[in-house]
Specification:
YCII, globular, 105 residues, 3 helices, YciI family protein, Dimeric_a/b-barrel, 31% helix, Sec-metab_biosynth-assoc
Length: 105
């Protein structure tokens, strides 16, 4: 089952610092999820000045319960980076299945 996650960071003074503090662990877990076929795509959401203010992920889990188990240990959740999160079931179109994206920041 595939899910679309759209999350926005907090807007308080410490928000950017929390993101930076949790970013390495977030990327490390993301790499593990990509290798396991659980994360299909992810990107940072940027503001008009190019600052990271949120995230968009396309995830694949056998059930919502298994997605919730990942969410409970996701560093941007435990590190209080994401303030507003919307998770919806979705269906990746056949043209995009197995797609790889070159490069990553």
């Amino acid at each position: 089952m595939q899910f679309l996650l759209i999350a926005f960071d907090g807007v308080d003074e410490g928000a950017a610092g929390r993101r930076l503090a949790a970013r390495e662990a977030h990327i490390e877990l993301g790499d593990e999820m990509v290798a396991a076929g659980r994360m299909l795509f992810g990107t940072a959401i940027l503001d008009d000045e190019g600052r990271m203010i949120g995230s968009m992920l396309v995830l694949d889990f056998p059930s919502r319960a298994e997605l919730d188990a990942w969410f409970a240990v996701e560093p941007y959740v435990t590190g209080k980076v994401w303030e507003r999160v919307d998770i919806r079931p979705c269906a990746v179109g056949p043209s995009f299945r197995g797609m790889t994206v070159a490069g990553r920041d």
